[in-house]
Amino acid sequence: MQPMKHFDVIVIGAGPAGLLAAGRAAELGGRILILEKMRTPGRKLLITGKGRCNITNDASIGEFIKHVYPNGRFLRNVFSQYYSQDILGLLHKYGVETTLERGGRYFPTSNKSKDILDALLKWLNELKVEIRCGERVEKLLIENQTIKGLQANGQTFHSKNIILATGGKSYPATGSNGEGFELARAGGHSVETLIPALVPVETSGNAAQRLQGLTLKNVRATVWSNGKKSGEDFGEMLFTHFGLSGPIILTLSRIIVTELQKKNKVEISIDLKPALDEQKLDKRLIRDLNEQGKKKIGNIFRNWLPASMIPVFIDLLRINPEKEGHQISSKERKQIRNMLKNMRFTISHHRSFKEAIITAGGVSTREISPKTMESKLVKGLYFAGEMIDLDAETGGYNLQIAFSTGWLAGNSSMAAGNR
Predict the structure, then answer these.
(1) Interval 219-235: pLDDT, tens
(2) Beta carbons within 10 angstroms of residue 199's beta carbon
(3) Helix-helix angle 113-126:84-93, to 10 degrees
(4) Is 344 left (phi over 0), alpha (psi -120 to 50) or beta?
(5) Which of 298, 331, 351 is the last residue of a domain?
(6) 27 and 159: one domain?
(7) Contact 355/205 with Cβ under 8 angstroms?
């Protein structure tokens, strides 16, 4: 028989939330164990920010929670206890230099997410946190709505405090395949519908596909659901072999996925000239067509669009590319203007959890104390990170949620004592 194993706190999951939870609990003097089913810790952390790791954002708490769905206010107390400067301070202590970039985004100066993981693991090593990889948790041991321990790989581990930080369902190859939600459900918890968020979308037709690889900056994207405006964002986007991606598309994808699930017709319109209203844009078109009237319209379009967009644009407009500028009618000019302000793509589907940066949905915040991250249903059970029904836009917001909720769960689990 295996000897019984006793710990003050057991953390399930060695992602950013789990690492912070374990570290904080260990700082308070606890004997801490992390159980991670993958062979190595922090696999998802390594791929965040395309391997650069957007650590956090320098927004104020009030501004930050505006970027969190569906209930950013849940985090107000969490952030009052552990916020962006706290995680940056910890990383600086362990030798990670950071750089503040546009949009308030903090990255390691080295642009290597591995430096973030190495720093956190060094912190945990100094605190003598035990990390066991290859350990799949099969069952929580709960008696009278109170945590007693868990079973993993056939072994029993005893603890009065367990922190669930197994991540969502996005990037399942890193280990976050949704198993943690089954543990939560077994404890009586409600799990709000899980959908991929910050996910690329697929489009009908071949226009987007023909533009594959093209990045547009400083454009405005608007989502239309059954003809009604559902949301918009300004910034950068990317055309792919299946449709649309890039920061503003990812941000809008939460709305898109939700509307697609309702079986609504979803479109995205791209304003390629957001700095010009229709009247000013029309004046510019008239000027360029007059000044370059003897040039073919395909060449004149170089004043208005990236070269790779021109053939696609002209095909959609059904204008003869051999026409000269002075031959363009007022009706055709209006068509050009309208498409520059409203280039439309019908969304046919969204990509899967395999390509989603995060998961929307999760354990209901109504069943978690915002002051401690402890379950309101099971004493000694805590939640942290992407397992909670909170998701945010790109910009370092999601990692900060993981760091903060993890820290608070670790802090609260030790503050509760051995009960």
Answers:
(1) 999 999 999 999 999 99
(2) 25
(3) 80
(4) beta
(5) 351
(6) yes
(7) no
CB 57 within 8 A of CB 103: yes
Residue with tokens 């948790």: 137
pTM exceeding 0.70: yes
Domain that holds residue 242: 200-351
Strands (E), 165-307: 191-197, 201-203, 215-225, 228-239, 243-245, 266-271
In this structure, are 186 and 271 located in the same domain? no
Q: Which residues neighbour 160 within 8 Å (Cβ) at sequence distance 6 or greater?
A: 8, 146, 147, 148, 380, 418, 419
Q: Are residues 130 and 251 in the same domain?
A: no
> How do strand 201-203 and strand 243-245 relate by DSSP bridges?
antiparallel
Give the CATH number for residue 397: 3.50.50.60
Closest to 161 measured CA to CA, from 2, 364, 371, 373 = 373
- Domain membership flag for residue 82: yes
Domain boundary among 295, 330, 351: 351
419 pLDDT more than 80: no
State pLDDT tens for residues 253-266.
Answer: 999 999 999 999 99
Q: Given pLDDT bands bounded at 50, 70 and 90, which one contains residue 3?
A: very low
User: Which two structure tokens, joined as six digits, stand for 225?
Assistant: 């659901």
User: Do 93 and 171 sit in the same domain of this protein?
Assistant: yes
**250, two tokens:** 């990812």
- Rounded CA-CA distance 394/401 in Å is 12
- Residue 235, Cα to own-chain centre: how many angstroms? 17
Give the integer Cα–Cα distance in Å for 404 and 80: 9
- Say if residue 41 is in the same domain as residue 122: yes
Asked if the model's pLDDT at residue 2 lies above 50, the reply is: no
Count of structural domains, the chain: 2
